[in-house]
Every structure is written in C-alpha cells, then in structure tokens.
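Team,

Forwarding the record for the chain on the shared tracking sheet. I've put the sequence and predicted structure together so nobody has to dig through attachments.
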Amino acid sequence: MAKSFEDSLKRIYTLYASDLSLGEIERLIKRDAPGIYDFYLQEAEQPEKKQNRFERTLRTIGNLFTAFIRKLTPARRAVYFVILFFFSYAFFVGSWFWGGFSFLCLNILLAFELADKLLAKDELEVAREIQMGLMPKEAPKNLNYDIACFSEAAREVGGDYYDFIQPRQLPGTTFVVIGDVSGKGMGAALRMVQVQAILHNLSERFSHPKEILQALDKNLRSILKLGSFFTVSMASINADKKLHLCRAGHMPLIHYRKQENACQEIIPPGIGVGLPECGKFDRELKQVDVKTKPGDILVFYTDGVVETMNSVKSEFGEERLKRVIITNAGKPAAEIQDAILTAVAQFRGTAPFHDDLTMIVMKVL
C-alpha cells in the first residue's frame, strides 16, 4: 500500500515537475504575466481618472475580466457563465458535488481553449519556417565587405525583412535590403512575403535603388490596406566600394568611419512606401552615394533594435548602439553583430520582447 502511494506521488511529480526549471518560473512571472496583462489591457476600457485609487483598481480588474470574456467564442462564453453559476451555488450551499462538477466543466473548457492554441501554434511554426526560409540564412560572400545579418520576430512571425538580391542582368552588383512592414504577427508577415516577391521582380527590371523603390511604391499602393505602410532602406554595392543608398522612411544608416573613430547617421530624404502622398513619394525620394574606406562599418537596422525597452520603459536608443559599434569596431562583422545583440539583451533584461529585431552589419575590407 505504501509503495503504491509512493509510486503515485512519483507519477504526479513526473507529470507536473519533471521538466520544470527556475528559468521557466522566472519567465512566467517576469515576462509572460506582464505580456498577457498588456494584451488584455489593450482591449479593456480605461477607468476614469477622477476615481480614487481603490475604485480605479476595482474598475480595472472588472474591465480586464470583461476583455477576457470577450475573447471567448459565444458558445464558450455561455458555458463559462454556467460554470460560474454552479461554482457560486456550490460555494454558498457547501456542496462538494456541484463544486466538483464545475471544476470538471472548467477543465473541459480549458482543454478546448488549449487545443485551439496548440493548433494555431503549430500553424504559426510552419509559417515561421516558411518566412525564415524566404530570407537569406547567411550573407553572400563579397570581396569588398565582411557581412553579417540577423533577424528575430517578437512573435512567431513578424513584419521585418532583409535580403541580398543579386540580379542576373547586373553581374557584380548586390542589392542590400532591410525593411519593416507596419504591424506585427501574421498580417505583417503575409505583407512582407508580398513585398519580397515584388522586390525580386523589380530588381531584374531596374538598375538603381531609387527606381526600384519608386516602382515598389506604385505596386504596393493597390495591395496594402489603408493605414498599412512599409519602410525600407535599399543599397547597391559593387566593385568600386561605393554604396548607392535610398531610404523610404526607414531608420538611418549608421556609418562608422575608422579614420575619425566616430559614427555618422546617414538619412536621405524619403517617406514610407504605401502612404497616402499624392505624388510626394517620388518627389521626396533621394538616392545618395556613400563613400567608404577599409575598416569602415555600415549598420542597417530596424526600429526594434533602438526601441527595445527595459523594465522601466527606457529605450536602448541610437547613442548606445553607436557606442557598442565604436567599442567593437576592430572586430569582424559577426562579432560586432553579436556585441550589439548582447548589449540589447542585457539592456532589456526580463522585460517583454515587444518588436521584431533585424540588422545587417557590413565592414569594409
């Protein structure tokens, strides 16, 4: 009898705690819980500021509960209220039967919700594999540049995009592309795939970044829904080590000059692709030439790098990024990239990961 009880305890421990770690508990408390709170808070009505702190707290809890209920399907919402009724009845009359019945029904409802989540997660994993497969796994070999690249989505899939396009009609030329589709998740990922297909097609028809982005704007205007847009920086590199850069509303290019041991932001004029502009896109867009020397470093990045926030809502910022680049300027591109990622991760700490993060580091040889 004692051995049977001991075996039962071992099975329970194996089921609930065999793969449990301190890191998992820490992530649940410091990362998952705040993330879920923010998720429901976006849907919840905000309490009036004139209420006192206690009233605002109660109203916030009630609004969060309402936001949670609205996320359930109508049928499951009805079942949930029935369960609440039986649980309340069991509590007031002291009935173990109705308490156990409501607990069983709640677990069945939880099983349905969990099954939906796991099915969606499996589909998102497939989508993630497809999306990451569309972007280069490594940078192309180039005689003039040591190149490293990295991309990580805040969710399973995201709207960041980077690419190295080598058009057949321009031997020796590589188009370096980094962009960010507005929004997050599956919607942004699907629009990113559309952008990539169109860019590859246009890169075979035009020779300069400015021409390609102007044509991209005309093509995407009929595809992107109202309010969606795409920011992008596109550069062409060739044998003369001169970089032709065009920027459509994207983050600045950081150019580290070895001779001065300093970083410069290069910000050519340009607005986002797909924005309502009545011809302004073509008028604003400018292409500039960036002259480089051996030892110089070029860093393309998305806003997820500099807008990474820590637990007190401070942003990583451009100045920290520049300091990391200067400090590690003597290293290869891959090590400079690793140093940036390490600095960003240390700065963020246990704060939730809010935005996609992508960068390309190019060091002139």
